[in-house]
Amino acid sequence: MSRYNRVGTHPESGEKVNVAYGWDEVPGFKPGYFFQVFDPKNEDLTLVNEGFLNGIEEDRLNELKKRWKVR
Fold first, then answer.
1. Residues 6+ positions from 14 with CB-CB distance below 8 Å
2. Segment holding 66, helix H or strand E
């Protein structure tokens, strides 16, 4: 598993958000990339959680990174 933690910008509100993304392989599920966005005021609040168990393709990861303006 690889995991990168970055800051992004909410595409609608312009607020800063915490972003985690990387590659994971969970036994019994499709390996691939994941992308998660967390509310910085409440880390328990997940705004986006794509590819967590069934990985997404790199193209989709790049779309999400661009949409959420990940630095």
1. none
2. helix 58-67
Strands (E), the chain: 4-9, 16-24, 32-39, 42-50
Alpha-carbon distances, residue 52 vs 12, 13, 15 (angstroms):
23, 25, 24
State the 10-residue block means of pLDDT for the chain, 71 residues long: 95 96 93 96 92 94 98 90
Tokens of 60: 């989709």
Q: Write down the domain spans for the chain.
A: 4-67
φ/ψ of residue 7, rounded to 5? -110, 140
Give this prediction's pTM: 0.92
Q: How many CB atoms lie within 10 A of CB 14?
A: 8
Distance CA 35, CA 19 (A): 7
